[in-house]
Write a structure and sequence with these properties.
With 371 residues, the protein is of the alpha/beta class. Helix content is 33%, strand content 14%. Strand 7 (159-160), helix 7 and strand 8 form a beta-alpha-beta unit. The longest helix is centred in the last third of the chain and has 14 residues, at 309-322.
């Protein structure tokens, strides 16, 4: 059975997260997007746990998977996935001596190395891997050159690519040959342009949390879907203040300071992945490059936001006709999409065929596309 899953989101108890990120809004958002499996995010937070418990069995049939993101003593972020909230109760107890924020912050800082956090997670029956592994902030490859230098002898169960990378970025890294890749939204808002903007298609034996964990651990990820890497805000090496982009050689020559305004130049994911790719390219499941439907509508309508009344009206027409956004982006015949909105149909046809011009992001500014 194939299901679409987004396993990394955040709660209102994390920093800079919409107050609308609640189960009441997220379950309907899953139906609108076409998501069948949802990670709760922030599962170490006791109040957030309680908010989810009435929704673990829901009328929409969404499989709710307890997940969280934590930051270690090196500022590396890790994604933890478990079968039950009780696992996170145990983890909270075991992490309590090494964290001052377990009960107050959705994504807590745990003053332990990655190896210790991973060992504790595994001892408790959870899965763990680096979150948005290639980004230049708070990521494994921002601070380490290998999995073992971050996690020591403790294995990882998956690696999350992040918005600025696709599967090709990790396919030539020997360290990762046997590691499944995940693509998740890391959403801070239930808006359809943010939520499930990246997702995984899993082959599960049943609609259950245990089957989801088995699929991740055994690499039964049949497709990853997400941004063109160039759309991510850290894809290219660029100044984190003015966003001027530089080649790696230029950045080194300028000692990682922007000559225009003195801002810090951050190494882009594309350059970092090239540094790490020292082996042959190994096959990976298909990676489907998608752009959120609202962003497509905004682009073709030339509006300032996907949230204008006109854009929302067009978006609603598509959901009414096809049931969910992923169906529109992935499966619906272009001629049928065009019958709702000709320019959106043309854009989706161009995206599916790869006939788009990408304008890469970097330094913290998202990229864009045209066709």
């Amino acid at each position: 059975m194939l299901v679409n899953a987004d396993l990394h989101i955040h709660s209102p108890y994390a920093i800079a997260v919409s107050r609308s990120m609640t189960p009441e809004h997220l379950i309907p958002a899953c139906k609108t997007k076409g998501i069948s499996v949802l990670g709760t995010g922030d599962a170490l937070h006791p109040v957030w746990q309680q908010a989810w418990k009435p929704y673990l069995a829901n009328d929409a049939g969404i499989v709710v998977v307890p997940t969280t993101e934590v930051e270690d003593q090196s500022r590396v972020h890790h994604l933890i996935i478990a079968e039950d909230f009780s696992v996170f109760d145990e983890l909270r107890d075991r992490f309590s001596k090494s964290s001052r924020s377990l009960g107050s912050v959705g994504r807590p800082h745990i003053y332990l190395p990655g190896e210790t956090i991973a060992r504790i997670a595994h001892d408790s029956g959870a899965l763990i891997g680096p979150a948005h592994a290639f980004t230049p902030w708070t990521a494994m490859y921002a601070y380490f050159d290998s999995v073992s230098s971050c996690y020591g002898s403790e294995p990882i169960d998956f690696l999350e690519l992040g918005l600025s990378a696709d599967s090709s970025y990790g396919a030539g890294i020997p360290d990762l040959y046997s590691i499944p890749f995940l693509t998740n939204s890391d959403a801070h808002s239930p808006a359809p342009e943010k939520f499930a903007r990246e997702f995984n298609r899993l082959d599960v034996s049943a609609l259950s949390v245990r089957s989801v964990l088995d699929a991740v651990k055994k690499g039964r990820i049949v497709m990853n879907a997400g941004f063109f890497p160039e759309e991510g805000k850290y894809n290219r090496t660029a100044c984190s203040r003015c966003f001027i982009q530089y080649t790696l050689e230029e950045a080194k020559k300028n000692q990682w300071r922007c000559p225009a305004d003195g801002g810090q130049i951050k190494k882009g994911v594309a350059d970092r992945a090239k540094e790490l790719s020292t082996g042959e390219l190994r096959p990976r499941p298909p990676y489907l490059h998608i752009v959120p439907l609202g962003q497509i509508i905004q682009t073709v309508e030339k509006t300032s936001s996907p949230y204008t009344k006109k854009c929302r009206r067009i978006y609603a027409a598509f959901i009414g006709a096809f049931g969910n956004e992923i169906e529109v982006l992935v499966n619906a015949p272009v001629i049928e999409v065009s019958s709702i909105h000709l320019k959106v149909g043309e854009a989706i046809g161009a995206l599916r065929a790869g006939r788009v011009a990408l304008h890469p992001g970097g330094g913290g500014k998202y990229g864009s596309f045209s066709y």
